[in-house]
Amino acid sequence: MTIINFTPLSAFTGGILIGFAAFLFFVFNGRMAGISSIAANSVLEKDNKIDNILFLIGLILGPVIFSIFGGQIESKLTNSILLVVIAGLLVGVGTKIGSGCTSGHGICGISRISIRSIIATISFLITGILTVLLFGVQ
Amino acid sequence: MTKISSLIAGLIFGLGLTISQMVNPEKVLGFLNLFGEWDPSLIFVMAGGIITFSPLYFIFKNKSKPIFAKHFITPSSNEIDKKLIIGSSLFGIGWGLVGLCPGPAVSSLAFLNTNSFIFVFFMFTGFILGNFALKKA
User: Could you identify which of A59, A132, B34, B41 might form a hypothetical disulfide with B106, taking C-beta atoms 3.0 to 4.6 angstroms apart as the criterion?
Assistant: First the structure.
């Protein structure tokens, strides 16, 4: 194992903002900022539909505002359409059946000291790491 | 009012994902590449999020109601079941294949990259299929 591209300061700063956003959503809306649930509920549920859609619009505006203020953003996604289709389906089905993703289980759930979320986080970390081990970085 | 706070929370969340570079799948795959050239940054994102949210959650969770909404909606299930583990494991495989999870996937639509749109379209298809599977089960 060699360590590369390590950016602890920007990672931690971004993490604080994510935690603060989760706090705002909790204290104002009374809800957990689990993005897979917010996204799924925006199409599957009638309750809070507009709230959910506006949260997703906010997520898209994040990088836009950042670049308006001069921030540089790098983003490199695989060119393989097949891989993107399979991964998208797995992420959608998996987070729906498993009731959460990196934000819902990984940040909000662990913050609440939910054993369920800790188990979920360990599960997706293990399969994520194994997938990269088997298929390499795409 | 819940609409305004939703938009603002989403925006700050999106800024956090951008500043921490989690909107870059390459960075996320670098973290999952534990046995290769490893980029530990993602741990610091999670740590920053948990250190910030956890104490605030415990301070405010006993309030009678949220500021704008009528009541708190927090997950009540404590059950560690097959659905949790199978679902989370499938999610991890998808995450490891391309380096996108739901938050960064939505934020990355801002880059107008065709493959981001395809990913998000199939992620929503997955939500609908998963929901259908849960109702059948």
Answer: A59
Task: Report pTM.
Answer: 0.97
Q: Which helix (H) or strand (E) holds A26?
A: helix A8-29
The ipTM is 0.97
Each residue's pLDDT tens digit, B1-19: 999 999 999 999 999 999 9
- Residue contact A32–B24, C-beta within 8 A: no
How far is A71 from A38, CA to CA, in rounded Å?
Answer: 27
pLDDT single digits (tens) B92-101: 999 999 999 9
Contacts of A133 in chain B (CB under 8 A): 33-36
Q: Which of A137, A53, A37 is nearest to B35 (CA)?
A: A137
The Cα–Cα gap between B125 and A60 comes to 19
Give the CA diameter of chain A. Answer: 48
Contact B60 A27 (CB under 8 A): yes
